[in-house]
Amino acid sequence: MRAFLRFSALVLLASPAFAAFAAPPAPVTSAGNAAPPVAHPQVKLHTSMGDIVIELFPDKAPKTVANFLQYVRDGFYDGTVFHRVIPMFLVQGGLYTRQLTPKRTRPPIPNEANNGLSNLRGTVAAARGPDPDSATAQFFFNIVDNPRLDYVGNQSGMTWGYAVFGKVVEGMDVVDKIDNLPTGPQGPFIGDVPRPLPVIESAAVIGEAAQPAAEPVSPTAGQVPFAPETKKQKKKTAASATASSTH
Questions:
Q1: What is d(CA 193, CA 245) in angstroms, rounded to the nearest whole number?
Q2: Is the C-alpha dihedral spanning 63, 64, 70, 71 positive or negative?
Q3: Torsion 53-165-14-245 (CA) sign
Q4: Alpha carbons 101 and 123: distance in angstroms, whole number
Q5: DSSP single-letter state for residue 197
Q6: How many Cβ atoms sit within 10 Å of the Cβ of residue 133?
Q7: What single-letter DSSP state applies at residue 26?
Q8: What is the pLDDT of residue 22?
């Protein structure tokens, strides 16, 4: 019931902005020939619950894709967990270790939500905080169509939406299994933590050799998609005085 109320409340916060995944016409060069399509890299997440393959869209979200690929190539995601599950809404991860401590991240990136892609089932989007340009390493899978998370306008963090930068092409059944795990409080979180914690054991760009892990350069903490808090959660949040994240 808590997850349903949280999901329903989001409908009231932004008007839906629907978009299709149909490919736009290929750009035409000055010579009149169609430019070659941009290659779509794929990343395999080998998790404790099975493998997930994500196709990325560098032609639609170049900065977000480049950022995600850098984290993958640095080995950043290896050993991180999916720490947040809201049934029939989203599955989120990419920052916390098995002990639910955040890792050091690279600097945040600009928000590319205004790219014509919608938060439909199976898509992957960059998680962020109230600031539209605060996304770092965290990402989430849309479990259902969530057009209410799409770009509406640049008036505020709410209307900016969340940038879709890829989609699941293999292993959506694994994502669904994670979505069906029981959840509860654990570590610094007052709820939504799946049990047992699904671990990303390794992440790799398909077709590329693994590279040595690099030390991230900025201690910026990632944020999460906004979801309204209940009165009970607000009291706990105020008591803990944690202003660095929404959950």
A1: 15
A2: positive
A3: positive
A4: 26
A5: P
A6: 13
A7: P
A8: 33
Q: Which residues contact 62 (CB under 8 A, 6 or more apart)?
A: 112
Q: Which residue has the tokens 């990632």?
A: 222
Give the DSSP letter string of 132-145. TT-B-S-EEEESS-
**Domain range list for the chain:** 2-7+38-236
How far from the centroid of its chain's Cα atoms is residue 145's Cα? 14
CA distances (Å), origin 114, targets 63, 117, 202, 226:
13, 8, 30, 18
Domain 2-7+38-236 is found in CATH 2.40.100.10: yes
Dist CA 107 CA 169 (whole Å): 29
3-state secondary structure of 186: strand
Question: Which mean pLDDT values do the consecutive 10-residue runs of the chain (247 residues) have?
Answer: 37 31 40 62 98 98 98 98 98 98 97 97 97 97 97 88 98 98 97 97 87 45 45 41 35
Task: Specify the pLDDT at position 21.
Answer: 32
Q: Which pLDDT belongs to residue 182? A: 98
Q: Tokens standing for 109?
A: 């990136």
pLDDT value of position 166: 98
**Euclidean distance between CA atoms 138 and 128, whole angstroms:** 7
Give me the DSSP letters along 219-242.
Answer: BPPP-----PPPHHHHHHHHHHT-
**What beta strand segments (E) does 60-151 contain?**
80-81, 84-86, 90-93, 123-126, 139-142
Query: Tell me, what's the pLDDT at 78?
Result: 98
DSSP lists the bridge partners of residue 142 as 90
What single-letter DSSP state applies at residue 28?
B
Give the predicted TM-score (pTM) of the model. Answer: 0.74
Distance CA 120, CA 104 (A): 30
